[in-house]
């Protein structure tokens, strides 16, 4: 036993020769990622970047976890509305809310953006940030994905979780910059990705500081404050981080400007697009999809040197929750 | 020589017994700060706080550096306007801008908030964030304070700079949360306080991502986006940090809600007000001042356990730039 413990101790003391990205197959994609990281972390390289400037940003829906058949946050909103309407049917007091509570998706979608805003307002406002986040945490414990049966926070992509960890091990700071809800994502981002609340950027509604019954509180009120999508992404990064990232990853045209701004900087840069090509193990979609539509990234990305990751070809494993 | 080097090496290897706050006199204020820090960093204490949650937030104007005779950022705006009007007199095309460019403070102040907004728009917008920050950096190199003759970034408070360093040495993350301009403060915060750009929160105007002549850029456009003052401070902290601080320091009623929210949390908390009591070495002002007005903090703070720092009594030294 003692010898075994000693041997184990020696093993862990050896330099890490193990593969940092075991779920990435040995394709060009993996080689390019490693080459980029080795370039910016090598003090003797002309493109060396100090740790403080090793900023990596990633979209969430479709980049770090799945987004089909619809954004998971919408499924949360519908489940929550159903639950609220069961407790108090008067809550579903418009045609859109009635359709949503009854899972009549066709009527809901016909209502367009306005109908969705009604659903978001009914389910995401009128409570403290804390109470909202408790509701999200409760939902994540019991909700299951309609296709895979997995908990939603186990539908994160194993290769991307490995990439985040590898980057941090190499001195990067990793951020989420997503169109998804800021308060929604913060509930699982730390456990799922190792990304703490202050490194999560997202879309947010208005919030209000006020004196509650016993103590001050911050309440989610009606109204969108910031949409973290398209040109909003570089704007938000500049506001919150104050530094241009050197690596940006996304999967849809909502990420185009973020990757464009990142890769337009001086020195070594990496832009990365996760291309959903795997109808068998995940989903296959791009130009015509109602979520995660990807046209510009495919048409212009390669000419700008962006790495297009082919899920079917480049990834050995998909979900963290897979057996 | 070798023995001297060895002795020096031994000295630095010894545990740090030196005073972390040498510019704080041995008064109750210093004792309370140290007691708080020792409480939350002691794993055996019931009020122990993990490093990830050791978040400390500080106002800037009047808390970390001086703010008299007016906010330094206004002096920058006036200098910049004067310079711009010299190069192109047509810029001063309103009564308020003409008054500002001519340093006719009385006329400018009579114009109220609208006149000030005109000055900010003329001097803080219509250029990239980068170009604006270069202008601030250039100004800091040559501008001197009207009373002390010091560069503005040497009018930071030595005791507060020591406090920031002490907190970081004890595992805290230190943030600025100020009504001052986000882009303005980021220019000097890292060198002056050791606070990197992503730990600076402030007031910001609208910015726009757009394709420039050669590359994409982020431009400061007209219009206020967020006022980081009063109830806006806890709202901004919640948005950007996602965690409630355990220490908050300010000097005016604009900081009241930030300190209130911080100290209303569970466990050990420290709220701190810098009270400007030293007419001889700095300035003495509170209830009637046109900048840094302090009424609620004095009337209600002590009952909520806030520490009121008496500059004249508690500080041995004031400015970092003092001989």
TrEMBL record, chains A, B:
Gene3D superfamilies: HAD superfamily/HAD-like. Transmembrane segments: none annotated. The keyword Hydrolase applies. Pfam families: HAD. The keyword Nucleus does not apply. Residues 1-18 form the signal peptide. One of its GO terms (molecular function) is hydrolase activity. Keywords: Hydrolase, Signal. This is HAD family hydrolase. It comes from Lutimaribacter marinistellae.
